[in-house]
Amino acid sequence: MLTNLFTSTTIPVLEEVAKFSQVRHTTLAGNIANLDTPGYKFRDLSVDDFQSQLQEAVESRRRPSPAYYSGRDTADTRFQATRADNPHTILYHDKSNVELEQQVSEMVKNHMQHNLALSVMNQQFRLLTTAISGRL
After folding, report:
1. How many Cα atoms occupy the beta-carbon half-sphere of 102 within 13 Å?
2. Which of 81, 114, 82, 84 is nearest to 99 (CA)?
3. Are 94 and 38 in contact (CB under 8 A)?
4. Whole-number Å distance between alpha carbons of 10 and 77
5. Residue 43 φ/ψ, nearest 5 degrees
6. How many CB atoms lie within 10 A of CB 87?
7. Contact predicate 102/89, CB 8 Å
8. Could you tell me if 60 and 4 are in contact, meaning their C-beta atoms sit under 8 angstroms apart?
9. What string of pLDDT tens digits covers the 136 residues of the chain?
10. Would you call 63 exposed, middle or buried from its count of C-beta atoms within 10 A (0-12, 13-18, 19+)?
């Protein structure tokens, strides 16, 4: 019964958003750390693929199990970062394509998405606590 209580809310979806944001943040931080590495091509997780897979899972009313899973259940290995081909980046003389401003901007957007997911999840838990306890 409690399993149905949690899965009938948006908590599983918010959990996936938080995990995706966490892994993406690590990937973006790695891009910034390798800013001066010659030949480094920045890596990223496809936000569009994640959102479309999550939308399909929500519409079919099942727990999200998008195609980006590698089969393991740890947050570090569930999402696979790939070299990102962004036509708006500049290829520098050392063959790298990492732009600091772009990476920091993506990190800020990712951080805001993560905080939003956690805030909404926190509110969901408060509502469930209130419903279970029967108090306002």
Report:
1. 14
2. 84
3. yes
4. 23
5. -115, 155
6. 4
7. yes
8. no
9. 566 666 667 888 888 999 999 999 999 999 889 888 888 888 889 888 898 888 887 887 665 554 443 333 444 445 666 665 555 555 555 555 567 888 888 999 999 999 999 999 999 889 888 888 876 5
10. exposed
User: Is the CB of residue 39 less than 8 Å from the CB of residue 95?
Assistant: yes
How far from the centroid of its chain's Cα atoms is residue 43's Cα?
14
Picking from 132, 127, 133, the residue whose alpha carbon sits closest to that of residue 14 is 127
- The answer to whether the beta carbons of residues 16 and 84 sit under 8 Å apart is no
CA distance 58 to 73: 20
* One-letter amino acid for residue 75 of the chain: A
User: What is the gyration radius of the CA atoms in the chain, in angstroms?
Assistant: 18
62 DSSP assignment: S
113 vs 59: CA distance, rounded Å: 21
> Which pair of structure tokens corresponds to residue 27?
């990937």
Integer Cα distance of 118 and 73 in angstroms: 20
Amino acid sitting at position 128 = L
